[in-house]
Design brief:
Elements lengths: L13 H28 L6 H27 L17 H29 L2 H25 L17 H4 L5
Helix pairs in contact: 1-2, 1-3, 2-4, 3-4
The structure holds fe (ii) ion (2 copies).
C-alpha cells in the first residue's frame, strides 16, 4: 500500500511559490527578532533554561532565513526584506505563547510548502524545507515544555490559502 502523501492538487506556479516563500521568509525574520528579544528579556530563575534555548533558536532561525532566501533567488525572485510584526510583552508567558503560536503556524506553512515543492518537482527545495521543519518542530517542543503543555496538533487550516490547503483535510498522510 502506498502511504506516501499525494501531491495531486498541490501544483502551484513558480511565481506563486516565490510569493509564498517570501511570506515564509518574513516569518523567519519575525522569529529571529522575537527570539533575540525574548531570550534577553525573559526574567525569573524558572526561565533560565528556556532563555538559553531561545537564544539558540535565534541562530537557527537565521539559518532558515538564509536557506529560504537562497531558494527564492534560485527560483528567480527577490527575497522579502520586511519581517512580520513581532509581539512585545514584559510577561514571560505571553512571550512564550506568542513564540509557540508562531512556530505552530510555521510548521503548518512548511507542511504545505513541502507538498507544493514536490508537486512542482522542486526536490531540492522540498529537502531544504524538510530540514527546516525538523528544527521548527523542536522549537515547538521546547516552548511547549517551558509552558508545561503538550505540543498543539498541526494547524493545517491557515485561512484563505488556495492550492491545496482545503484538500489537506481530506488527504490521509
Ligand atoms: Fe525558522
Ligand atoms: Fe522556529
Amino acid at each position: 500500500m502506498n502511504t506516501e502523501p499525494t501531491t495531486a492538487g498541490f501544483e502551484i506556479t513558480r511565481e506563486e511559490m516565490i510569493r509564498f516563500l517570501n511570506e515564509d521568509l518574513a516569518g523567519e525574520y519575525q522569529a529571529i527578532i522575537a527570539y533575540i528579544v525574548y531570550s534577553q528579556v525573559l526574567k525569573g530563575a524558572e526561565y533560565t533554561d528556556i532563555a538559553g534555548e531561545l537564544e539558540q533558536h535565534a541562530g537557527e532561525e537565521l539559518q532558515h532565513a538564509i536557506k529560504i532566501a537562497k531558494q527564492i533567488d534560485y527560483l528567480g525572485g527577490m527575497p522579502e526584506v520586511t519581517p512580520k510584526p513581532v509581539i512585545t510583552s514584559e510577561d514571560a508567558i505571553t512571550m512564550l505563547k506568542a513564540d509557540l503560536e508562531n512556530e505552530r503556524n510555521t510548521v503548518a506553512r512548511y507542511r504545505l510548502r513541502i507538498r507544493q515543492a514536490e508537486a512542482m518537482g522542486e526536490y531540492a527545495l522540498s529537502e531544504t524545507l524538510r530540514g527546516i521543519i525538523v528544527q521548527e518542530q523542536d522549537h515547538e517542543i521546547d516552548l511547549a515544555a517551558a509552558l508545561g503543555i503538550d505540543v498543539p496538533l498541526p494547524e493545517d487550516s491557515l485561512h484563505g490559502r488556495r492550492n491545496g490547503l482545503d484538500r489537506l483535510h481530506k488527504v490521509q498522510p
